[in-house]
Amino acid sequence: MIISTPPFCPVQFDDPDLLRSAFHATTDMHALWAHLREVAPVYKADPGGGREQFWVVTRHADVSRVLRSHTEFSSRRGTILSVLDLNTPDIATDDMLADTDPPRHRELREPLNHAFAPSLVATHDKLIRGLARDAIQRALDADVYDIAHDTMMFAMSITGTLMGLPPESWERLMHVVMMTIAYEDPTYAAGNAMATVRQARHQMFEAFKEQFALRTRDDEHPDAIGIMRQMDLSEGPMTEQQAMVNGYVLLIGANVTTPHTLCTLFTQMAEHPDQFERLRHHPEDLQIALAEVLRWASPVTALMRYAIQDVELQGQTIRAGEPVSAWLGSANRDERVFDDPYTFDLTRRPNRHVAFGVGPHYCIGAGMAKVTLQIFMEELLDMVETVEIAGEVQHVASHFVPGYKSLPVRFTPRKTVAAAR
Ligand code: HEM
């Protein structure tokens, strides 16, 4: 269906495009979302090809309701659009944290919360700061440096440490993570989309299986995999299969979102040096600034739910059982909630962004992400005077996370740091 009602939409699209990764990589999605919010805030898309029709929800209030209201909208059949795109049944209903509804959700979530508590992450301050400084220094040492890969490995090194994954597997696992979210991107595809996702899942599952077997039920200081080894669910101890799927969602959750936020941070620092200069003199505003970087980045583009009952939304009736996609990227620019939504403003307050979601599935790693991103920002402001985008920027082709594949930057050192050397 092409919606052509005024106001004029500069983006010509058809329903299946919303599931096509390449469309997301090459289209001004913000223009499209602005149009949908205005003229068709809740509409039913028909992707064709025997795939289920699905609802597209773009306003902040409706996106929040879909994500928050677990009695109306269920996560059990999967939460990533690829379920529709690939026409696959969900693999982990009621076993993988993201694919559960309360009360089952609480059983899995409460113990896992400990593995990524901000207080625990903060004990790794030195490691995180060191990783950030190393990445920044590599860029400073070069004239032009493609920093995209370093942001991925920064995230992977922290998650790998907290999960207890062997460092020699991080590079390979990072590639495999990208295969699951960018299965149509030539850099990551290994055969067709289905084959790519299967291969990636297999490799990740094998990695977690191996590690699960190495943990015991009485380790005194368990890492995240160790915590899963010790978890008791209502039906008994967590199984290897359950640990595999939860390891999978944790690894993906952490490692595609944080790099995208960092790359957005660099592009915004290049575009708005004055705002970052102000921030340097007001470090107390770092958290406010980070919220704006997250709103701007909106690392997770869209999430899925399935209606449990008939629900009225914006005059439309969503029938029980129908898939509903909630577009976070759109909600974060909703003019009904944000003044001047297309202006990047590091002092924006209030900032009701939904980058981490809302409701029971609110990102379990939000605290960890905030600690790590804040540390990175502190180091960046300390070491780098200016950022310039110094070459062609390439985005990952994905309808889940519109990350960066290539981001050539030129960093100039801060004079004080340069003088001290
Ligand atoms: C900038 C960084 C991050 C962003 C923007 C982000 C975004 C999100 C969003 C939007 C959700 C909600 C999913 C839903 O409602 O279905 C979510 C959930 C989740 N995130 Fe994150 N995330 C980030 C970092 C992390 C990190 C560091 C981890 C690893 C610890 C992580 C692991 C997860 C997991 C496992 C869930 C599912 C939680 C549940 O179902 O209860 N995320 N994240």
From TrEMBL:
- A Pfam family annotated for this chain is p450
Task: Recite the UniProt keywords alphabetically.
Answer: Heme, Iron, Metal-binding, Monooxygenase, Oxidoreductase
Matches recorded under SUPFAM superfamilies: Cytochrome P450
Task: Extract the InterPro entries matched here.
Answer: Cyt_P450, Cyt_P450_B, Cyt_P450_CS, Cyt_P450_sf
Keyword match Glycoprotein: no
| Molecular function via GO | heme binding; iron ion binding; monooxygenase activity; oxidoreductase activity, acting on paired donors, with incorporation or reduction of molecular oxygen
State the family it belongs to: Belongs to the cytochrome P450 family.
* Entry protein name: Cytochrome P450
